[in-house]
Amino acid sequence: MGHSDPQLEVQARQQYWMPFSANKEFKQEPRMFVRAQGMYCYTPDGREVIDASSGLFCVAAGHCRPEIAKAVYEQMSTLDYIAPFLRAHPKAFELASRVAEYTPEGMNRVFFVNSGSESVDTAMKMALMYHRVKGEPQRQLFISRERAYHGVNMGGVALAGMVNNRRAFGVGLAGVYHMRHTALPENRFVRGQPEKGADLAEDLLRFCQLYGGENIAAVFVEPTAGSFGCLPPPKGYLNRLREICDAHGILLVFDEVITGWGRMGANFGAQAFGVTPDIMTMAKAITNGAQPMGAVVARQHVYDAITEAGPERGVEFFHGYTYSAHPAACAAGLAMMDIIRDERLIDRARDMSPYFLDAVYSLKDLPIVTDIRGVGMMAAVDVAVDKAPGARGHEVQKRLYDQGLNLKNTGDALILAPPFVAEKKHIDEIVDKLRKVLSGL
Ligand SMILES: Cc1ncc(COP(=O)(O)O)c(C=O)c1O
User: Would the CB of 222 count as within 6 Å of ligand 1?
Assistant: First the structure.
């Protein structure tokens, strides 16, 4: 890159096939970042852009934390890599026990992976394996929900409830049934958990009655659906799922890839909403996004059942990744655990939430805004559909970048999830810029 001829410049961009992106458009009009610090990212021409979505819900502690950079550098100079199968390094154990300090009581067995998608597929396998060793190998069905996002691996795509992520790939994936989503029209502009909608959890009971609860391995839900555009659970909804799972011996899995590590104003969605699952997934903020990493945390009895059923001196769970518990990721994770503890980052998220939500809900008066949902340090602003679904949302995220605001849109939902180091002035800047761009549409 760096050609003076614009056509050559476009040519030089062709090799990179971008994920979840409008490749053709981007290569004609790229919107790039070359540097980031704290709340801001910087464009190649040096413009400052405030990061209202923490990258992709990752940088809870703000960009380019020197503590993490130093820890990764030192780790890379000491032990760069070691096979995670039948070998280990001390930081993997250390990080697992630090993670378990934040998860609900009894959820204390930590399996490391490299992404949210891998955490979901790993959790599916854990559920299948658990039932198999408990003498119920017929439990092969999974239940998830419309509007869910569970990553892009084949298991996660089967669970997915977002049509564009399924229609090309998910048609042949059997054995997953979807509960209805909880975005009821009467819940428009509700802040936090809606009063209405807990009865939608009865869909699970209907599946138990239709397919036999004894055939269902696990129910997967995001405590608050994130990627679709922030759908907090109706009051009592997760509790009811828990009850039905218990009554039918089904494992409850919370996909906490976004909701984990403070985003809901508590350690995890589990604590924020007072419901403890059997297995939870996480990724993103576990390393502040600075290294790829995810984890699956299981209740101890799930781990015990699987490991005790295995041979005395042989592999018990035939699953793992070359980069599971990678030393650099563990070092980044440990540095992030220190930041979370020393800066009381999760308390900070909880304390800033009311100011953040007040600011976002102040956009309600704009005629173009059709709904706002928010909880903790996450919110979504829906803009009215224009031409085709998603067209306006796409246009808005481009204009926002040009005006100095970075956020993620899913269709016509603009998703806000700022780093927890945000101060009131940053929240004001985000909402002012949003108002300006939305008012000009
Ligand atoms: C709830 C949930 N699960 C899984 C994933 C997939 O994570 P990754 O993109 O790291 O594979 C995401 C990503 O946003 C997510 O929000």
Answer: yes
